[in-house]
Amino acid sequence: MTPTPQHHALVRLDGKDYHFPVMVGTENEKAIDIRTLRQETGYITFDEGLGDTGSCTSSITFIDGEAGILRYRGYPIEQLAEKSSFVEATYLVIYGDLPTVEQRKRFSQMLTKHARLHEGMTKFLGEFPSASHPMAVLSSGVNSLSAYYPYLATNNHQRDLEHFDEAAAIAISKVRTIAAHSYRVSRGLPLNYPRPDFGYCENFLHLMFSEPYNEFVPTPEVAQALNLFLLLHADHEQNCSTSTVRMVASSGANLFTSIAAGVNALWGPLHGGANMSVIEMLKSIHAEGDDGTKFIAAARSGIGEQRLMGFGHRVYKHYDPRAKIIKASFYKALASLRIKDDPLLNIAMKLEEVALRDDYFLSRKLYPNVDFYSGLIMRAVGIPENMFTVMFAIGRMPGWVAQWHEVAANPKLKLYRPRQIYQGSPVRDYVPIEQRG
Ligand SMILES: CC(C)(COP(=O)(O)OP(=O)(O)OC[C@H]1O[C@@H](n2cnc3c(N)ncnc32)[C@H](O)[C@@H]1OP(=O)(O)O)[C@@H](O)C(=O)NCCC(=O)NCCS
To answer: Is pTM, for the whole model, over 0.90?
Structure first.
């Protein structure tokens, strides 16, 4: 994306005209390049929440929220969901192209090699109190990778990039083991070791649910549902956690520390916690004996400031394409799990049916987002609710790794350092403590 000299934005400030170049992206997205704005005019822009700000150029993911389009490295999410797998999509997101047979094999071998944790780390994770939230354990575990692998975490981007393949495989593979350990710790259960003969998702389920006296072997359908869930979360351009990863990386920080920051940003209910809120909403509707109709009426009229969780999106102003895919696969997963009648699913379907006919939701372009059905999928797979955000983190890991690489490999890298509009006290003189009222 380079500035096109023939396009300029004309800005008139204090009676003087300034011209700023216009940048055009691959998909014809347009941006005004204001990098010299303050230097030339003394002004800065104000965009709380950064909704109208392009903070970087990137070649990883494309989203058109109005048209409901999501692509990883140019490939439509629908095609990847149908034909690819989480591990293959991970390779694609990180390295930019679909792997050849040989590359795919080598990548899988790397993931298998790095699935096991350093014994010291297993002990360290086992010491967390059982009341710990799995996200607290996960972020600490991911951050501690920089302590266990200091040669991959030098905080010198050039040196860290020389070992990027190994660091990336460690991040992708070990996040799954750390995540499962975080769950076992929260239940006071003994920790399991990964199995080299299992695929990525089967291994995760084994790490979560196997007992010393009872090996857990998931059905292929359950592993497939998990595979799809992870693939659909692999990247989503400059959301809150990804921007956090890039911000931390811009200081020169290593991969592990940067992605641990992403885990922390994801923890909040406005970001990674929304899928849990959907289940809580469905449960409370069910407990009240409502089929969803009363709830919709309340959400529409603002009664009790209720929102229809899992509806609406900052970027998508149409059906979130991931929600469509996850909904379709959900029925298959339910059939394979022989779940015939899930009351929460019935309520979700009723809510969707009513909302998609309701002018309140249509006029505000509120459609189901990925979280509307993803919590139900996780529930069907047997993932406990306090692990939903952790699952999101495992899925988002390829995106964070790829975005860190984009920052670290950028020869023109600039430290992220936004400005502010100060609204505090004007200058005042220090008052000695005995003279303060
Ligand atoms: C995701 C979300 C924060 C996006 O918010 P946003 O783009 O900033 O949109 P706003 O909060 O400005 O909402 C615009 C209007 O739609 C309404 N609205 C938005 N989401 C709504 C929802 N889920 N239920 C009912 N009304 C909703 C707002 O009340 C507002 O109405 P108004 O114009 O009459 O004041 C918002 O849609 C939401 O809270 N959704 C539910 C939580 C959720 O599912 N989050 C996961 C996102 S992946």
So the answer is: yes
